[in-house]
Amino acid sequence: MDMLTEEQRILLDNVRKMVKRKIAPAAAELDRRGEFSGETASLFWDLGLLQIMLPEEHGGWPFHPCHTLCLCIEEIAKGCASSALMLIIQAVGSFPLIHAGNDFQKRKYFPMLSKQRQLIAYLVTEPGAGSDVAAITAKAQRRGQHYVLTGHKVFATNGGVAGLYSVLARTGENALSFFIVERPWNGVTIGKHEDKCGFRGSDTSEVLLEDVEVPEENLVGKEGGGFLIAMADFDMSRPAVAALSLGIAEGALDYATEYAGHRHTFGKPLIGHQPIQFMLADGLTLIEAGRGLMEKAALNFDAKQRNTTLASMAKCFCSDAAMKITTDMVQVLGGYGYTKDFPVERMFRDAKLTQIFEGANQIQRMIIGREMLKRGA
Question: 220-251: b or e for each residue (b if 16 or more CB lie within 10 Å)?
């Protein structure tokens, strides 16, 4: 944190104040209702948090945008992981346009993602294609000056509330391509809203695409270039998931530490018992170690240095740490930790998803292992 710029310090101070006053107090109710919060989205727009990865002229952060994004996500996730996820999805959904969009697309859609405050969802996952992106079956067939897009996308975060979609579809036997799709277009319908274990304050929906006519100018990048764009997107999103994981873990650790200082057992504060101290100490150590990985991966991305393996390390380590820490913090609170009256129960449920999405942790270990094979060859 000593390396932060003055601008980052000011932004993070404003984020902390917002989390304390608005985000954290609403987290339990959002979780209970299982609903997306438009009010929270407005708060994020007001602070410029949903525009961080855009070019500076559209409200983006001028230097170290991925690092700045990750630091904001971490702070928000301490109070409400569902709300913090909104920042990740906006960045992930915008990435194909930022990375591979042409001038026409940027002129049209960047203002929608900034001044017009449109959310964008990332439609990649399908019933038979999760971490295995190459297994996608959604098809986009060329017909004159349009592509006709048909597919069934699932687990689309913000899918039911976004106005724009970045859609990955098959344009040939061995070719995947990205398209920008607008929600009002004919053939776009919202399907099932998922009733999830955690992240209940985040919208997760099916999006059905039936013979959607997509203008050829909405092809992002070259036809067949979608797979490489998706892989590059992971280099940005995985440090962000690491930051999300750290925030969840920190929120649980902070609450449990305060609880252990006030709760008395056997004549002394709970924190005075060595087994409790060990759980708290292990949690703090994992968080500090994970932050080093997360920040290095994010800064490498900003510097346009290859960070694929480092991003996988950060995502895997931090999400595993979050699962362990939240489990331990439930244990610190005992029976109270297993009730919805205390936030560590929600954080425990939220932590599990971080091990699954943006590439399951088993996939992350495969990526790291392949890099080790290259080094040993």
Answer: bbebebbbebbebbbbbbbbbbbbbbbbbbbb
CA triple 13-199-348, angle to 5 deg: 85
Q: Residue 1: inside a domain, yes or no?
A: no
Decide: 229 and 220 in contact? Cβ < 8 Å: yes
Provide the number of structural domains found in the chain. Answer: 3
What span, in angstroms and rounded, lies between the C-alpha atoms of 276 and 219? 55
Which of 163, 197, 223 corresponds to the end of one domain? Answer: 223
291 and 261 belong to one structural domain: yes
Mean pLDDT, the chain, integer: 97
Q: What is the pLDDT of residues 190-241, one digit of tens each?
A: 999 999 999 999 999 999 999 999 999 999 999 999 999 999 999 999 999 9
> Which of 75, 250, 295, 358 is flagged as catalytic?
358
Domain hosting 135: range is 120-223
Verify that 279 and 353 share a domain, yes or no.
yes
Q: Is 358 a catalytic residue?
A: yes
